[in-house]
Amino acid sequence: MAQGTNNHELTPEENEILEQIAQKGDPALRQLACLIIFWNQGLSLEEISTKAKIPLEEVQGAVSHYKEKGTHIFPTALVEEAVVALVSERASEEKTKKQNSPGVLADDLMSEAGRKVLRFHFERMLENEAGTRLGEDREALHDMRVATRRMRSAFRIFGPYFKRKRIKPFIKGLRRTGRILGRVRDLDVSMQKASTYLEQLSDDEKSALDPLLDRWRAKHATLRADLLTHLDTKRHKEFVDQFNTFLSTKNDGAKKVKLSKPNAYRVYQAAPILIYKRYGILRGYDEILEKAELDTLHALRIDVKRFRYLLEFVQEALDPTLKEVIQECVIVQDHLGELNDADIACRILVDFLEDWRKKRRRENTDISGVADYLVWRQVELRKLVDTFPATWIRFLRSNIRHKLADAISEL
User: Fold this and answer.
1) Does residue 1 form part of some domain?
2) What's the alpha-carbon Rg for the chain, to the nearest Å?
3) Which of 181, 188, 324, 348 could bridge 145 with an S-S bond, Cβ 3.0-4.6 Å?
């Protein structure tokens, strides 16, 4: 064999099997698999010898042996184990691909489209439970909470196509779980924002919020304990099991369609009505936003979120241009979300300072840093309120309306 020339090209399956073997098993067999992989990549025998720090003669023998017998140079059990692992990985990858979206189609019955959406987010909720329990990654809890919110929003949209009695327990279960997740998540957000503020201060000032953070940490520990207790209750486990059965059973709880009269019961029939109804609600804010109170902006945030979720639930059945409309919704929702967080933070800080004044005025602890933080949040809130009109005008521009109409016209 001419050294430096690759006279044998492995099939994709052979290469994948070798990569599996190279990751597990006996060190000598892992090394042998690596040598063949290097050879398949086009390295010369000398380069392989240098890279692997193995005598050239051993490299030559290994490659020659593989050219003669292929994967049979490895123990049969090891090769079979590698094949099983590959099949499992491919199945997992295929499952992941399928789970990247609910899979709603234009011809779906609204009840079954709703079941697809609910199933998709139910699986997201379950996938993030382990991380939520562990508590090391705050995003796991955030994602679990978002999943419950989206399922509750899905029930608002698709609920009318189910028998109320059948879905009522699931709506209640989601509300319970969402509420307790929300308490922990809201405190997470408050603590993260406080940490961001402290990063701007000098080292001598970084203890400025210790009295506040000490209280928040204690409260956070209590709320996490409550959350874990909730997840372990028989009531919650029964909710999960029963909800799973409902989501896995086609037509379960669905209202019968009356074909004796016009009825928008499929996605392509109902989606345009629902979308424009929701969009009309948003446009109803146009004339009141100029002097809107914070409560009005909070209500708008919720309505924007519900509009966005509706678009996301049915987007696969519509034109791809809908993604741009959804992105504009995200921009508005993020702005209003930060505004709402700042408003809530200001209220919490005012309550903290007032409580401290009443109950702890004899303590010598300096809480002026908390007062400074309140001013910082108030300034941030004012800035978010003042800049929101520009965000709203952007959302209302004509090309976004046209993209929305174009997307719906595909139904």
Assistant:
1) no
2) 29
3) 181
267 near 165, Cβ under 8 Å?
A: no
Tell me the two tokens of residue 79.
Answer: 């090769």
Instruction: Look at residue 143 in the predicted model and tell me its pLDDT.
Output: 96
The pair of structure tokens assigned to 392 is 């709203």
Q: What domain range is 155 assigned to?
A: 103-254
**d(Cα 269, Cα 274) in Å, to the nearest integer?**
10
- Tell me the C-alpha to C-alpha distance, in Å, between residue 124 and each of 70, 129, 130, 313: 42, 9, 11, 14
Residues 363 and 247: their CA atoms lie apart, in Å, by: 56
C-alpha 99: how far from chain center: 12
Domain count, the chain: 3
Q: Is the pTM of this model over 0.90?
A: no
Same domain, 107 and 89: no
Which string of DSSP letters, residue by residue, matches 225-276? HHHHHHHHSHHHHHHHHHHHHHHHSTTTTBPPP-TTS----BHHHHHHHHHH
Block residue for tokens 């629902």: 274
Establish if 3 belongs to a structural domain. Answer: no
- Cα–Cα distance, 20 to 30 (Å, whole number): 9
Q: What is the pLDDT of residues 365-385, one digit of tens each?
A: 778 999 999 999 999 999 999
Instruction: List the one residue out of 394, 137, 81 whose CA is nearest residue 89.
Output: 81
| Alpha-carbon separation of residue 141 from 75, 149, 357, 411 (angstroms) | 45, 12, 34, 36
The per-residue pLDDT for range 325-369, each reduced to its tens digit, is 999 999 999 999 999 999 999 999 999 998 888 776 556 677 899
CA distance 271 to 267: 5
Question: 3-class DSSP state for residue 203?
Answer: helix
pLDDT number for residue 95: 54
- Give the end of a domain, one of 254, 274, 290: 254
Domain identity same for 247 and 108: yes
Q: CB–CB of 65/73 below 8 Å?
A: yes
Retrieve residue 94's tokens.
């295929």
- One domain for residues 73 and 213: no
